[in-house]
Every structure is written in C-alpha cells, then in structure tokens.
Amino acid sequence: MYAPAGVKTSKDFPIPDSMKAWVLGDPGQLTLTDKPVPVPKRAEVLVRIDAAAICATDLEVIYQGPPAMIQGGLPFNKNFTPGHEYMGTVAALGPGVDEYKIGQRVAVEIHAGCGQCKRCRDGMYTSCHNYGLNYGDVDKGHRANGFTTDGGFCEYQVNNINTLVAIQDDMSDEEGALVVTAGTAMYALTELGGLVAGESVVVSGAGPIGLMAVAVAKALGAQPVILTEMRDNRLKIALELGADAVVNVSKVPDVVAAVKKLNGGKGVDYVVECSAASKAVNDAVHMVNRGGKVCLAAFAHEPVLVDVAHIVSNNIYLYGIRGEGKGAVHRAEAFMRQKRFDATKIHTHTFPLADLPTAIRYAKDRVDDAIKVVVKAKLDAAHKVAAE
Ligand SMILES: [Zn+2]
Ligand SMILES: [Zn+2]
Q1: Are the C-beta atoms of 356 and 83 separated by less than 8 Å?
Q2: Who is most buried in 73, 93, 108, 193, counting CB within 10 A?
C-alpha cells in the first residue's frame, strides 16, 4: 500500500502503489502502461484525477512535441504522460501541507513556475525563465504538468498547492476540468487590461478558448462581444454563451468590414485571436480602433504576414499569452461558481480513460461535432461492470 515517508494519507482514500498511465512513444503513439503512483514533495499534494479534458495543445504535444519539453528536449520516448486540463480529488498531502484536505475536490492550473525567477516573482509563472529546468543538476523545481512534468492522462498526479483551485460539490467533474480552459481566456482578457466593461471585443475563432473568451468577456461586462468563426454550430454556442453578434467568416467577403458594421462603423477596442488562421492576425490589427489591443492566444503553424506600418501608425498593441498566468484560473472559477456562464456548453463527449485514443480522434477530427472531449478513469469501472 502507498505510504511514502512524510506523506499524509487517509484510510478513507486508500491509494494503490501503481496506476494506469498513458505514455508517449514516437509522435502520435500512446501506450497504456503501469506507473508507480507519484509522491508529493514539500508544498505538493497527490491528486486523484477524476476527469481530464483534451486540448488542442495536447495534440501539438502528442504529434509535434513542443511546447512540451522533457529533460531539455522533445517529449518522445521518455516515459512521459501528457494531459494538462484536469480536475480531481486531493488524495494525499506532501510534507507541511495544511492548505488542502484529503477528499477536497480541486481544479488545477498547469504551470507551477520555479517561484524564484523574475517572471514568477511578477505572477507571470506561465512565462517562467526556468521552464523545463526540472531534471538532473539543473533542477529549478519548475512544473508544468503535461508539458515539462507528467500530466493528467493517468489516475494520479502531483500538483504544487499553488496550482490548485478548490471547487464546489455542485460543479460536475466535466465542468471542473474546464476551469483551466476558462482560466486561459481570463488571462487573455487580464493582459488586455482586465476592466473591459463597456468596451467592444472581437473574439476570432470558436475553439474552446475562443468560446470561453466570449463567455468571460460578457461576464466582465464587455459590450458588444462579437465572435468570428466559420462553423454555424459553433456560432450558435457562442450566442448561447452571451455573444452579442456573430460573423460567419465563410459567408462575408470582408470580415473586417463586417465587424465594423456591427460596431457602429468603428473598429473595436480589443481582439482576442483564438483561431490560428494565417490571415487572422492581420485582420485583427485592422479590426481594432486606434490604440486598440490585440491578444494572440492561438499557435499559428507558420510565420504570418502582418501590416506593421498599420500597427505603428495606429498605436496598436499586440500581446502574446501563454497559458493561464496571474491567478486567472481562480477568477474563472469564481465566475463559474457564481453561474455567470455555463462552461459545460463546450463539453460534448466523455470517454473512459482506457479509450484515450478514441477520445483524441474525436477531438482531433471533430467527430460528431466534438468540441471538448473528456476522459474519466472512473468510467472504466462502470463500463467493466456493464460488460460483465
Ligand atoms: Zn490546454
Ligand atoms: Zn520561474
């Protein structure tokens, strides 16, 4: 039985010594294996993972490698477990931890910075200068589960207490796994200035982050919030999440003109770019008004052409964000706890953890209009019972 020295456990939460965990082999190749249940150190807890959502960035990691960085390089064939958007139940406490109790349900942030670099000290722990330096004699203690340390496509994981957000019992496991998704959208709006009440906002692209950006912008009081996207089913969800107007970019000749028309003929104050479309950044800088701000929240796959003279002559600000810094996940959870928006509208499918490859196929190929696909270890048991 699991009883590491210095770690507090409870007989109410018996923990096995080993667990099921998916590991990444060659690009795109995942294998379900057994791993020892990890051991929390100082300021860490062991989380029993109850639900993990698949993110587009997981697909980047599994098929391309970056932004994951394991032992200073690509994550392939290093016994690495991906997965970074998850929630669970605190199952054991590392030495000195009294901030959380065993049995408490938590959502997680991804990045536990090193806590000692310039950016971590500023609250920008997702931009830690010691990213991935957590091995051998360069160990700075940095963790980003699913990127530089083992992630959530398994049954248990270790989390720094600074990456935990307590959630209420009335929040489902699936919704809990989406808190960090909403947190990323919250971070985008935080970096754009935060006080967006009464300001006009365009969100381009209706992936999970884009849809959550619509919901968070509305919850923060932005007006109007306009979503641009190609798929009608996603436009419908954006309207349900509070968008004031939507533009189907495949049905208008000029998306910039269409947005300005919806905003009284003027450019908007902010654009949150979540589409990664090659044209989207240049469109965004032409959608904002003078002095407007553009936040880039999507990974473009190639360099894109942008009208720099337009940016300079109009004093436009461009921001890149990584992940969910500056406590944004806590603010997102507060909105979700107060039912300011319903993140479950982006959850479409749940599979057992053992069916992760199927879940990934649904997310990657958008099978059955999949948006957010979740895997749950506990579903395995239910399915096994049903099969017997
Ligand atoms: Zn993600
Ligand atoms: Zn740092």
Answers
A1: no
A2: 108
Percent helix, strand, coil in the chain (nearest 5)? 30, 25, 45
Q: What average pLDDT does the structure give for the chain?
A: 95
CA 121-331-323 angle, to 5 degrees, is: 55
Q: What SS3 state is found at 81?
A: coil
CA of 177 to the centre of ligand 1 (A): 10
Give the tens place of pLDDT for each residue, 132-151: 999 999 899 899 999 999 99
Can the peptide bond before residue 95 be classed as cis, meaning omega within 30 degrees of 0? no
Residue 233 CA to ligand 1 centre (angstroms): 22
pLDDT of 83-99, one tens digit each?
Answer: 999 999 999 999 999 99
Cα 76 from Cα 290, distance rounded (Å):
45
CA distance linking residue 185 with residue 321, whole number of Å? 10
Count other Cβ atoms within 10 Å, centred on residue 286. Answer: 21
Give pLDDT, residue 386.
44
pLDDT < 50: residue spans in the chain: 382-388
Distances (CA, A) of 198 to 238, 323, 357: 19, 26, 44
Nearest ligand to residue 184 Cα: 1
Which ligand has the minimum distance to the alpha carbon of residue 126?
2
Cα of 178 vs centre of ligand 1, distance in Å, is: 9
